[in-house]
Amino acid sequence: MSEVLAHRSRALTPAETEELLRDRLGDGVLRSVVEYGMFTLWIDPSAWVEAATRCRDERLLGYDMFDSLFGVDAREAGFDVVAVLYSTSTGNRIVLRVRCEGGRDAPTLPSLSEVYRGANWMERETFDMFGVDFTGHPGLEPRILTVENFEGFPLRKDFHLAARVAKPWPGVAEPVELDEEGNVIEREVGLGDAPGPYELDKAMAAQAQQVNAPPAPAVQPEAGADDDDADPSAEVTASATATGATAGSDAPAAQAPVDEDRAARAKAKADERRRKQAEARAAKAKARAERAAGGEAPDAAPPSDTAADTTAADEPTTSAPAEAAPGASPDAGPDAGATEEASDDAAGTDASSAATSTPEDDRAARAKAKAEERRRKQAELRAARAKARADREDGEDDA
Amino acid sequence: MSDLDLAQQVLPATAPGEGIAVELVGNGDMQTADMSLSIGEAHPATHGVFRIVLEMDGERVVDAHPVIGYMHRGFEKLAEHRDYRQIKALVNRHDWLSGFSNELGVALVVEKLMEFEVPDRAQWIRMLLAEWNRILNHLMFIGSYGLELGAITPMFYAFREREDIQALLESATGGRLHFTYNQVGGLKIDLPKGFLHESARVSKVTRERLPDYFDLVLGNEIFQARSKGVGPLPMDVGLSIGVTGPTLQATGLPEDSRATEPYLKYGELDVEVPVGSNGDAYDRFSCLLHRIRVSLDLIDQIHDHIPPGPVNSKLPKMVKAPEGATYVRTENPLGQLSYWLESDGGRNPWRLKMRTPSFSNVQAIPYLMRGQLLPDAVSILGSVFFVVGDIDR
Amino acid sequence: MMLLVTSGVAPLLAQAESLLDVGDSFLLPLVLKLALVLAVFFVVPLVAGYVEHKAMGRMQHRRGPVEAGPFGSLQLVADGIKFIQKEDLIPAAADKWVFAIAPGVALVPAMLVIVVLPFGPGVFALDLELGLFYVLSASSVSVLGVLMGGWASANKFSLFGGLRAGAQLIAYELPLILAAIAVAVQAGTLSLVGIVEAQSGFMLFGTDVNVWYVFPQLLGFGIFFVAAMAELSRPPFDMPIGDSELVFGYMTEYSGIKYAMYMLTEYAGMVSMSAIMVVLYLGGWQILPGVPLPGCEVGGGLFDCGVTGTLLGVAVTLAKIMLLVFVMVWARVTYPRLREDQLQRLSWLVLVPLALVNLALITIAKVVF
Fold it and tell me: Distance between CA atoms of C122 and A376, rounded to whole angstroms?
């Protein structure tokens, strides 16, 4: 039975530890960071094994327990590997951090499996998750956590979480999409970000424009997502076309003679509906402005609810003629959802604008205008899809 | 006549790759072949999907290769796409027998990075529930280790105890397995009225039933014959691998986060750390059993210490951690659970590394199994306490 | 085999007359005896199984089966029906014929043993002069069935189980036989009915107290009990099954009726071993040493009992059998299983020497007293 913390009295401070290691490793120690109760030493890759060995063997350091070793994505610079060591006799913990050589393409680092037995599996996991090649490791393959024939390295930031690409969160249920007042924020899609719902909408809108194009032999959109594509929006577009809009992909193929009557009828209905909505919106806006001038806040919510109801109520009627198409329900679903939240957002912004004082009105008006623009575009998209469905039906009837 | 000559005389000559390869192993007179036995994913001995491929010479294990990853669910990747409130529902589930302790770890690491103050009452209640969770976890392993050896009864007794404790925790948190009671900055809501009274009662009842385990299991002659001297782990090997928890304490080192690196308010309590002497299966089990008693003692101490006050602090609407990284170590029932949280100032973690105890404990299994007989190998498998979800995350 | 025994060989070796030797014809007693053996074989193990379920349940803080039949008494019947209607799976790589008949090879000897076991005054199929010898040798044949099952399954776990079973069952034959021989020496006969008879007149050495053989031979009784449990692969000696290591040992690949046959072998073995112990050590159908059964006139209150006497005798025997079965269940619930080498060590280094000592002591005592 031995004692833990037997040498706690002679535990070195971070500064002393750094000095000792600099003395032993020279230029191997790059810099040290003490933050949030943790002492990190940045080590040069060439001195990585030496540093760990010294930590273990130096009498004053005595880091006998191997805590963990893992990778961290360091954006463009490549990957970092972090090793945490603990000393049971002094109670010190040290974090050794190294930036792997080879950048993002071929990261590599010497292995610590000779120094600490526990590094064996930890390095296998880091290889599995990040693709860091540990030289001198007894056997990085077969892959430890993923399937043996898995392609890609999951924890890299450019490896997109497949679930988020295939189906985004409906609406903005995700708090990360809202700012402090609860407005939806437009984000720059950076490295490692999952695409938000609006990227998909944009993608669908872009693809709808292709559908609307005059019947020249349209380029068939790429079916099937390409995982190595670093550009998330392009990938999203590709996958969206593969998964979501089956009706759209059929349209260019079915170059059947357009039934003028049916298309004209659908167009007329869509125009009528849009007009009605614009009228309703204008009336509501007027009522709201009056109320805001009168200083009443609480009634802002119900009219927007009714606005949502009316838009939702209009939905089934427009979808009715195209009901026969099998693609109707999945398309109507996200549409209804999208319009719901669009109108809810408008309600939200309206409510907030009604609650706050008048100088905010121009922001509210701008937000409202944006929301209306979005709604109009969606209505157009729906009309286009209805038309496409009608086209396809006719194509089937003829064939 | 050399062994090789004997083999060539008795067997017809086979070309390499043809027929069955027979190697002379051990005693040169008997010709035996090494066999590869896969204690596969769906085996009664491995609780969960965990596979070990054993190379056997008769009944003796020559080498063992654990194959993990069947339950890999990508928690670390999922955590990068959730905000700081949502990750605690994820981490409940990697060591599903210690849900509260996992959430506690992740709440602590987020609070450390945000430098958030947690009210005292919340800290004490967290300790109370963490100790109950520890007892739940240990009771499960007491039952299941007996089952590995063929003792079918301790399982039922352990589950009887677990039912009482789970009902207690359900009254406070609403869950029996996954609690989701911790929150960044404290607890979700306060304890229900009468909880401490009930907790004292369950503690008394559990303490009364504890001698049954000492007599029926630890004192059982056949149990001792099956576990003493089986799979001894030397201390330095254990430290080098990174083994923690009862497995390490059995080797003789009283390394326990609650005692050596106190978190929450463990520094104000008297934490006893039971140790073994030679790190064999009997010592590991004995440490586990004694830890239950220690946890009951701690619970009784905590009952006297809980101050009145709020249990959580108001969080901002957006829980954002500043840029930086930190590392928090807690004592999970199975060993040391640590979280490394690195943030880039946003709403999601940039990297949440879960250093789980089972991953390191299982890494010791090949070392322990080499040279043992098959029943002993199974005994070792049961005595290195692990939960498969904890290994694979 | 039974036909052969009861018809041809029987007149040469039989001693006491069974109750079922009615009439002069040859056929009626044969049918009655067959009925007795089959009834005992199919009913009493089910009762033993019921005792196991309920007792084990209560010891584990639960109730055991309560649904099938009143108080769950028909649970094993339901299990039997379930097994019969299951799909019969034979692994593709298995040795088909050996795989198919292995459970039968294990089961039939268990049935054969019941032929000579007395369950009451005159309630037996046959009383062979070599009864004890026949019982011990017939029960050893089951080992072959286990080995065949383990080998033919084409499964590494089954192979392990079969080999372990072979080693274990051979190892524990010896203490079993040595302990039984001590009783035979004491009684002066190998006939089972004769042993019961001898116990009714047995006085403890140098005293006038009539006791059963369990008292002077407590050590032998203990050895026989332990060896019997090991012969049956009952926990704590169930290494061949070892369900936390070997999935289910030699029975891993068996399903449906074949599996039921193996399980029936185990329970029928429990019953027959318990019955043998009752006969050898616990005085057979006597209520207490020195207390004759009511209604029995001839043979010191042992034979020719009236209806009540016979039924009471059968009830007493069955009660004693169930008591021993209960002790076996109790041992199962309490102990984990012994490792194979510990098991072997127990047999060769502990039980065999003790059994020899027991035999020596009994022989000396027999001569002296």
Answer: 101
